[in-house]
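Write out this protein's structure.
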Amino acid sequence: MTTLPFSPAADRNKQPILEALRQVLPTRGRALEIASGTGQHAAWFGAGLPGWTWQPTEANSTALPAIAAWVQEAGAGNVHAPCLLDVMKPRWPSDEETLASAFALPFDAIFCANLLHISPWTTCRSLMQGAGRHLVKDSGLLLIYGPFLEDGVPTSPGNLAFDESLRTQNPAWGLRRREAVEEEALRCGLGLRQRIALPANNLLLVFGFR
């Protein structure tokens, strides 16, 4: 049994997300993961998408060793060493060395899971702006996973309770309305390509250049 930091939710959703990624992504490419958390997703997706190189990132430097350890345990040689990246910064990442190496070329895909509802709304705007800067023009895809509110779609009791608990913890947090996220994407030239329903009332939203 692993002694590494462990997220039960990441363990439950990693395979459904991987199956969805296999549907929408080509067989090869370069992916940037925003807010990699424990590193369980990076390790699983790297192993499950052997034609892709995967760049995990985190805003918290203390998370980087655990991400690297998960990747090593999975034997995912196509996953790069994790690096610091703060979505809210005007440059991704902020240090020159990493910017000149891992970020020298644009990415074919940017993946982000469970970030927007545990951060201020300005994070969504910064995510879209960063995707517009760092994705391959025309063919690049931004993939956002998590729970959302949607116009005309009943919200599950579980998601309603989750939303209330988040807003109790921090008034700036909470489930985001899918349509509002789309509006932010459009401001950066990205349009919604696919809405994929996944277990536990989560969605994978796939954005591409218009």
